[in-house]
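Quick one: structure tokens for this chain, please?
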Amino acid sequence: MEKWNEELKKLLSKKYVANLLVILAVAVMALIVSGDFFAKDSSTNRLERNPMGDTLVMQQVETKSEEELVENRLKKILEEMRGAGEVEVMVTFEMGAEIVPAINTVESKDTTEEKDSNGGTRTVNSENITTSTVITNDNAGNRPLVLKEIKPQVKGVIVVAEGADDPQVKARLYEAVKTVLQIPGHQVQVYPRN
């Protein structure tokens, strides 16, 4: 029994306990660092499997611009016209789309009448207007409530087509672009392709 007590005292000596605590602290730090490393690695893999992710920025990067959408649809329909052949289309806009969010306005007015000791009166009017954007919560997170979206105005269109050497095909392409985009003729140019 005495031998056990001596061995126990040796094991619990300050030097042994200090060494044990240092080893334990290093092991805990190693686990924390490796856990962060593997957690970052798994979140990257999750985003690769789900390309939409959880952020609005990623969704905007993946969507096509208004110009690209209009150009692609216009190109597709113009290429279907008899004699047009292969077509390239370029559309420019004055500005990007404008989004009008819903605004919550709180207005408060206060009128105070003060009288001083000499019999004079003073009226103090104060007005406070507070506005904030109305936020909705959906699957993608919190977003502003949009009242309307104003599409950008077309500034100009260039069409380059194989069949534009033929005046009749050129005229049909010209009229089709004016009609579909509802723009005046001076904003549309049709050229033959090389």
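The chain is about 40% helix and 30% strand.
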